[in-house]
Amino acid sequence: MASTILVTGANGFVGSHIVDCLLRRGNTVRAMVRTTSDLSWLENKPVELVYGSLDDPDSLPAAVEGVDKIVHNAGVVAAEHRYFYYLHNSEGTHNLIKAVLDVHSGNNRPRFLLVSSQAAGGPSGARWRRESDPPEPITHYGRSKLLAETILLRYQDQLPVTIVRPPSVYGPRDHAFLPLFTMISRGFMPMVGPAHQVSFVHVQDLARQIGDQLFHDNAVGEVFNAAPFAPIPQAEFGDTIATVLSATPRKISISPALLKALYPLVYPFLSMITQPPFLVDKLPDITTPRWTLDGSKAESKLGFKGQLPLLAGVGQTAEWYRWKKWLTTRRDRIKARGKVSTYMRPISDTLRLYDEGCDLCGLAFDREIKTPIHYEDDDFIIVDCMICHVPMAVLKEHRAAFTPQEKERIQVKFKELFGEAAADFEQRRIPEHAHVHNRKHGHAPPWTRRPEELNNPGDTASDGSSHGGC
Q: Measured at the alpha carbon of residue 230, what is the angle toward residues 224 and 232, in degrees to the nearest 5?
């Protein structure tokens, strides 16, 4: 059944996606933020705002009053002095726990989920790191997160607790990976140890796993890695970005040893003229060759499976960056210069109109495909939409509307492939190029329950099975 859930750090990149997921699943969300927080990612969402700070214990009882569950996501990921990692990540967690114990009593205490980090476990060796492996953090950030875990687990006889350890998280709203996307779109791909093995998780998969852990009985007292897909060489992440941006960047390999020796020397000078790409204390993380996680425990105990593998996740992230005008591609720059050309190009044995500034022409003619192909012939191609993930049929010609015959063919193909035809012919983001989504209802904000989900008041059954998802 639906719950009232407190989310700390709810306004940030990861926190706002957790909020979306919990709202989508029919829960009531209380968002704990600071008085100075940027609330852009919470605008227009049906959340209750409560102002509090982990280093101000007196502000916390009001935040935890009347909630059934807590997702403790707030913390510090970068600090000029190690003291702040422990103040916020470790002591701050302890302050929140004490507030919960003071306000709630007996068997009515809320479920407490801590969003920790891969850094708490430390880097991996020859095999992917499992939750049961002895932790070996190598930075103060990792040690502060491990201490937060240790503090929480001391209270597991008084609270139903669970912990999630994400690796590198990417996705819409993220600023950390944006510079890499930008550099690759401009023709450069810097790589520190390109053969390094790394785990990644898309933020929406992370939010879904947190939602599952928060309700599943099997998650109580457990630590879970959030790694639904296998680790990859670091260079593969950059290559995937280049693929979805249709870029051919020059690869620049940076020696980890050289970076470790020189970066501390140049950091003070960088600080005087610009925002450095990372703090000096992050060097051990960046230069360590293996940060790999085994995520199979979440699947075996919770039944959780990721929905956004690398190509789809990176493609969706790039499209979101473009939508927000945070990133431009070659096609965007062609449009901006006002030098778009249209001409006839062959598909199979016929000539079709092609627009070199059109994304959907790029998909149909240039094979700029970022998601699986469900169907293709000489007239149209069916792939998953990068934004809403539902099947989308794209005409292989740059014109704005389907003919009645084409509409009929597409609906027949939708029914044949997916069991039903629910063609939404209203064209929004690219109105000059005919395309159609196979869905019963129009676009909706990511925190909104679909009409077909409204009969399910809660998201999760007693066994943790998902009713809607996010």
A: 125
456 CB burial (10 A radius; 0-12, 13-18, 19+):
middle
Q: 435 in helix, strand or coil?
A: strand
Tens digit of each residue's pLDDT (9 = 90 or more) over 253-285? 998 999 999 999 998 988 888 878 888 888 999
CA pair distance 121, 211, nearest whole angstrom = 22
Residue with tokens 């035809």: 421
> CB of 197 within 8 A of CB of 231?
yes
Quick one: which H or E segment has residue 324? none
Contact present, 145 and 185 (Cβ < 8 Å):
no
Sign of CA dihedral 460, 464, 465, 469: positive
**Percent of the chain beyond pLDDT 90?**
65
pLDDT for 347 equals: 80
Cβ 460 vs Cβ 215: under 8 Å: yes
Closest CA to 469 of 455, 458, 224: 458
pTM of the model: 0.87
Burial class (CB in 10 A: 0-12, 13-18, 19+), 202: buried
What residue ranges do the domains of the chain occupy? 4-248+276-323, 331-438
Strand partners, 353: 344
* 377 CB-near residues (< 8 Å, 6+ apart): none
Q: What is the pLDDT of residue 460?
A: 40
- Token reading at 301: 């105990």
* Environment class of 211 (CB within 10 Å of its CB; exposed 0-12, middle 13-18, buried 19+): buried
Q: pLDDT (tens digit, 9 = 90+) per residue, 291-303?
A: 999 999 999 999 9
Judged against a pLDDT cut of 80, whether residue 428 lies above it is answered with no
Strand intervals (E) in 236-318 = 250-254, 290-291
Please check the confidence at residue 151 and state whether its pLDDT lies above 60.
yes
Place of tokens 């593998």: 309
Q: Domain spanning 4-248+276-323 has what CATH number?
A: 3.40.50.720
Tokens of 103: 């306000």
CATH, range 331-438 = 3.30.428
